[in-house]
From TrEMBL:
Gene Ontology molecular function, alphabetical: ATP binding; CTP synthase activity; identical protein binding
This protein's name: CTP synthase
Originating species: Tribonema minus
Range of residues in the leader sequence: none
CDD domains associated with the record: CTPS_N, GATase1_CTP_Synthase
SUPFAM superfamilies according to UniProt: Class I glutamine amidotransferase-like (SSF52317), P-loop containing nucleoside triphosphate hydrolases (SSF52540)
Family listed: Belongs to the CTP synthase family.
Coiled-coil stretches noted in the UniProt entry, renumbered to this chain: none
């Protein structure tokens, strides 16, 4: 196993995740099986209980792991499926060591940070690195290890110490250290500043780690003089100081790394059995994004719109779909509470602006969420989309809002609600799932990959969603919820026209709702989160359906799918 460890200096949010994903993609295209591990030096055992406002989206894996959003970047770029163990946190490591101590595994020894915690970290990395992640069942060749935070943080010290020891455990020829740094530009003359990088590398050195490659994040290309300066002061050959400057879209990053010969540097240092990377498909992808200029606007109606990272996978899924249809995605952010009647009274301008956006966009997404705030706005929005033929995709809470809206407007059950928002409602359209714990918060939802059985519509036709999934009988998508559609109300809802065309394997849990295409161009809700499995070259079908409908191209697409299937 070969390891590429990536650290970051100066500030967080440098794009370390994109850089490391791009290195992985480059190596994958050189013929290697790649995997990745993210180290988060915080005490939470996982990201599940963290506020999206502070940390961005909680990404969900097949095994139900609730992890840092960087694992989403890895999965999308490397086309892999990771597990909860691919996200190591301080909390998990300590928990493991304390568990062993209680079991008596340390045979009476004093349990210490060095060597017990540091050994645990190294064992963990070695154990997880070899797990197959690409569906082939084979062990990966290269494991990328990202150390979260910045070098010099107290929190990450123990991980850096573990990695210092790790170079000896696995051997120098099996581990390479890439440091991602920031090269800011100051003043009107625009001089690229190298000091922050020098300081970052000095910090690394002080803990016994030496970078083999430095990736410099900067607005513009690194100047030759800057490269030389970094090379001299940081004791890294100039060829190994790479420019990772801002580019028109992130798909260019792996291409830029190949241009600078990073694959051959890694080949030489790690003795990798690789061929020249085949970047044809990837180049086309990057170019297609640049040349797709006709806009398509999609509103995202949420409650965490202040931090767009909270909806990272939703944004990515919309982008993947827009790329597939050759459009330039324009996301319009709408704070759901601004759509509510109360806002009309209190903040009339915001109310007017929010509704203005809804009325002029080409399509709408109501993503997942928790808690009361903004829910009535989402329900209003679903109602408007339904009655104005506006393509809408509701995800998780968005799906639940669509069902509540239908009960209220079409079934006439005015107080229909989710018991999450009104426990006393007479018409609980969405209820708490029986097997879920009300007391413990961490890891207690219905989480991870579960299958959804797709069924025909009431009139025997194949549902739009099933056609989008290539007429599949069932799909495996990821979940994260505590509430579900009340099974007792399903018959009434369906009789009134909103059809549940996907259910779990017991048949009792509603997974997908849609209005027939004769009634609405695209009105689809999913209890699961399709955004977690969308890939740049394989957009998630429900998102693709939304974007196609927003472009008015859904019917033509589905018809062409039928004829291509017939041809097969
Ligand atoms: N709050 C809802 C539930 O727990 C929806 C969750 C979500 O959107 N992820 O079921």
């Amino acid at each position: 196993m070969k390891y590429i460890v990536v650290t970051g200096g100066v500030v967080s949010g440098l794009g370390k995740g994109v850089t490391i994903s791009s290195i992985g993609r480059m190596l994958k295209n050189c013929g290697l099986k790649t995997t990745s591990i993210k180290i988060d030096p915080y005490l939470n055992t996982d990201a599940g209980t963290m506020s999206p406002f502070e940390h961005g989206e909680v990404f969900v894996l097949d095994d139900g792991g609730e992890v840092d959003l960087d694992l989403g970047n890895y999965e999308r770029f490397l086309s892999v499926r990771l597990s909860r163990d691919h996200n190591i946190t301080t909390g998990k490591v300590y928990q493991e060591v304390i568990l062993k101590e209680r079991r008596g595994d340390y045979l009476g020894k004093t349990v210490q940070v060095v060597p017990h915690i540091t050994d645990e970290i190294q064992d963990w990395i070695e154990r997880v690195a070899v797990t197959p992640v690409d569906g082939s069942g084979c062990c990966p060749d290269v494991c990328l290890v990202e150390v979260g935070g910045t070098v010099g943080d107290i929190e990450s010290m123990v991980f850096l110490e573990a990695l210092r020891q790790f170079q000896f455990r696995v051997g120098q020829e099996n581990m390479c250290l890439v440091h991602v740094s920031l090269v800011p530009v100051l003043g009107s003359v625009g001089e690229q500043k190298t000091k922050p990088t020098q300081h970052g590398v000095r910090e690394l050195r002080s803990v016994g780690l030496h970078p083999d490659v430095i990736c410099c994040r900067s607005a513009d290309m690194l100047e030759e003089s800057t490269r030389r300066k970094i090379s001299i002061f940081c004791h890294v050959p100039a060829t190994h100081v790479l420019t990772v400057h801002d580019v028109s879209n992130i798909y260019h990053v792996p291409l830029k790394l190949v241009e600078q010969n990073l694959h051959n540097m890694l080949k030489e240092q790690l003795k990798l059995p690789i061929h020249e990377p085949d970047m044809k498909e990837w180049t086309m992808l990057a170019q297609k994004v640049d040349t797709s200029t006709m806009p398509i606007s999609i509103a995202v109606v949420g409650k965490y719109t202040g931090l767009q990272d909270s909806y990272l996978s939703v944004i990515k899924s919309l982008k993947h779909s827009a790329i597939a249809v050759g459009r330039d995605l324009v996301i319009e952010w709408v704070e759901a509470s601004n759509l509510e009647a109360e806002s009309k009274e209190e903040t009339p301008e915001r109310y007017a602006d929010a509704w203005d956006v809804i009325s002029r966009v080409d399509g709408i997404v109501i993503p997942g969420g928790f808690g009361n705030r903004g829910v009535e706005g989402k329900i209003e929005c679903a109602s408007w989309a339904r009655t104005h033929n506006k393509p809408l995709l509701g995800i998780c809470l968005g799906f639940q809002c669509m069902v509540i809206e239908y009960c209220r407007s079409v079934l006439g059950l005015k107080d229909a609600n989710s018991t999450e928002f009104n426990e006393a409602t007479e018409h609980p359209a969405v209820i708490f799932m029986p097997e879920i714990s009300k007391e413990a918060m961490g890891g207690t939802m219905r989480l991870g990959a579960r299958s959804t059985i797709l069924s025909a519509r009431a009139n025997g036709e194949t549902s739009t969603v099933s056609r989008l999934y290539g007429n599949a009988d069932s799909v495996l998508e990821r979940h994260r919820h505590r509430y579900e559609v009340n099974p007792e109300m399903v018959a009434d809802i369906e009789a009134a026209g909103l059809e549940f065309v996907g259910r779990d394997d017991s048949g009792k849990r509603m997974e997908i709702a849609e209005l027939p295409s004769s009634v609405h161009p695209y009105y689809v809700g999913t209890q699961y989160h399709p955004e977690f499995l969308s890939r740049p070259l394989e957009p998630s079908p429900p998102f693709l359906g939304l974007v196609l409908a927003a472009c008015n191209e859904l019917d033509a697409y589905l018809a062409s799918k039928v004829s291509s299937n017939a041809a097969l």
